[in-house]
Design goal:
This protein is mostly helical. The protein contains 2 helices and no strands.
C-alpha cells in the first residue's frame, strides 16, 4: 500500500520548508527512488521506453584522484 502525505502550505516559503524537512526525513534510498521515477517519467514524456535509460557509452574510464 502506498502512503501519501498531504500538506497545504500558506506560502511558498512554508512549502519549501516542508519539502526540505520531508526529504531529509525520507533518507537517501527514498530520494534516489524518487529521482529514478522522475528519470523514467521524463523518458516516457519524450516518447522513449524506460529501458532505454542507460549511462552514456562515451565514458571509457573513471579515474579516482
Amino acid at each position: 500500500m502506498r502512503k501519501v502525505l498531504l500538506h497545504k502550505a500558506q506560502s511558498p516559503r512554508e512549502a519549501r520548508e516542508f519539502d526540505i524537512r520531508f526529504w531529509k526525513r525520507s533518507g537517501a534510498q527514498a530520494r534516489f527512488a524518487a529521482a529514478w521515477i522522475m528519470v523514467i517519467d521524463s523518458f516516457k514524456v519524450r516518447g522513449k521506453r524506460g529501458n532505454q535509460s542507460r549511462l552514456r557509452r562515451s565514458v571509457q574510464n573513471i579515474k579516482y584522484l
